Amino acid sequence: MAADTTDFDEFYNATHRRVLHQMYAMTGNLADAQECTQEAYARAWQRWKTVSQASSPEAWIRTVAWRIAASRWRKAKNGVTALVKHGVPDHTPAPDPDHVALVTALKQIPESQRQAIVLHHLVGMSVDDIAAETGSPSGTIKARLSRGRAALAELLTDTGDTAGLQAGGEAS
Amino acid sequence: MTDRFDDDLERRLAGLSADLDGVSLDGPSAARRRGTRRSRHQVTGGVLAGVAAVAAGVLVLSPSELTTTPEPAPPASLSTMAPGPTTTALELSAALLTPEDVAGDSGTWATGDQPGPEVACDPAGNLDTMSSLQEHAETALTAGTTTIRQDLVRLGPGSEATGLRDDLLSCLPERGAAEGPATTDTLSFVGVGDEGWIVRYYADPADQQADAVTIAIVRSRDVVSVTVRVEPAADTAGGELDTATPEAAAARMCDVLFGDACVSDDAHTEELTVTDSTDGSSGPAAPPAAPTEEAPTGDPTTPAEELLQLADDPFLTEEDVAEIGSATGFVRQPEMDVDLAVAPCLQDPMDYGAITVPAHGYNHELDASLFEWVGLMPDAASAIRMVTAHTTLTDCGDPGEDREQTVGEPVAVDVEGADDAVVWTVESTPTADNPGSSSSFAGIGVARVGNIVVAVAFGSMDDPSGGDWPGVATGLLASAMERAVG
Questions:
Q1: What are phi and psi of B462, to 5 degrees?
Q2: Are A54 and B91 a contacting pair at CB < 8 A?
Q3: Which of A15, B236, B250, B383 has its CA at 20 to 30 Å from residue B419's CA atom?
């Protein structure tokens, strides 16, 4: 048991900031990201013997945290819309304007596109790996990436934020 | 151009980490406490259930007597947990049934050394021949003369378990058949996984010591659980069907592999009606002359599903939309921007795996509009999921400040040429603080035939149907279906 605790704690300390970062990008809300990430680690501890044997426990945490976030959005159906409408919440720490623009844009694209964007462009996963992790066909992931990038480019351009950057092309 | 955008996006996403400076989670000990506290609540519930069962004279084992979960291998080296590309999840074997999962059942359960008895029409015999098979794990539990065997298989994305079901049903004699095993139960699960069925048959109805076999197939996402319970017919006196085992199997499968729950509180069974069998008849397909101990052959993952294609022009014509209730004179407007936001509560077919979703807009001289989406789905199951998702309406959008939104109940309608269809309305009215605004009406409908989904969304200030949107939408969707299929 002590060994399990040590393993879990080491895993937590080695990975939690990365997962929190990814969830922040996916949810666009630091408080939500904190809660979903911590809850995912709690669930992992409940079944640590099996999670620790996974090919990537970190992927397990990220996937569960994302599902928790998505589930909460669906239960509070207008929550995301409200966040979009009201912008970055007050508890976000003194944000860089560039970050505000990016987070605001991310929150305006569909959650499936946002997830694909973050997994590909932040986590560094290939289309096939995203397809495997999310249980979606590769073609769907490519479409989500393409649409997500196009939408982000437009949204960021609208805010005068991308200096004319354009999106498009195929995901690899 | 694209590389520059990607580089910039990646740089900015990475830069978000600066917002985390000074922000911390509660720490690993807090996570462990939260997890442990929840586990204790679950154990407490189990103990209370055990007390009640003992009072009723049922043998219940304490969890400590029932440990079969294999001891874990040493955890992967944490130093290798780089944030790079990752693949999936847990080994299937971790999600197999354990004696604890069936501990509420009578008897002393233990993991068996043998794979379990062979039975007629066993779906497990087909699993390793499935073309989409990616991973396979199995276990067997025994208690006295009863054996429960479970196979877990991971299939490719978008896979279905209907092939396994159809092979099972076609292998067994029909219910009431004079000869061969007697099939007594053919049911569908509701609220268990994404799809599931349970079948029971008696190998020799005249022999109380012959096998009674209960086979359940449950799929959640890309994983399928097949449980086979074999016991002497005499032990099934009373006739109660064992749905608890497949439900426990599904619960464990989803909990371990996906970290969520896929067995609802009101899970139950319904009489199975198979409408998509090859002969189109209802109920199990015609049986072979007599079942054999050999598993059926062939690849059950390739049922004869004919995929439909989109028409070259899959959209409603101007003639089709000449009259939408009292609104007339819609014309095609190829340049109109079509955004799902104009269709409250309508979900994106892309989220259900659509291959493509072309869309078209139409407008009307009196400031009414109509939008149409035509989704080519990879299979009928995806299309069914997309349509049935609208039987409970969610994500219906924000009506805006000083407005109230009324979302009508979704109504299933019978649309000519469609297998399933659901329609609903959403009305937005200004609050008393907003007297200068007008009300608005949106009527939406989604229908499916095979693997093709169509959706229409009408929007204007007034309801053109006079309160009968289902009636108006039925005709509109029928036309849309006719145009969509190539």
A1: -125, 160
A2: yes
A3: B250
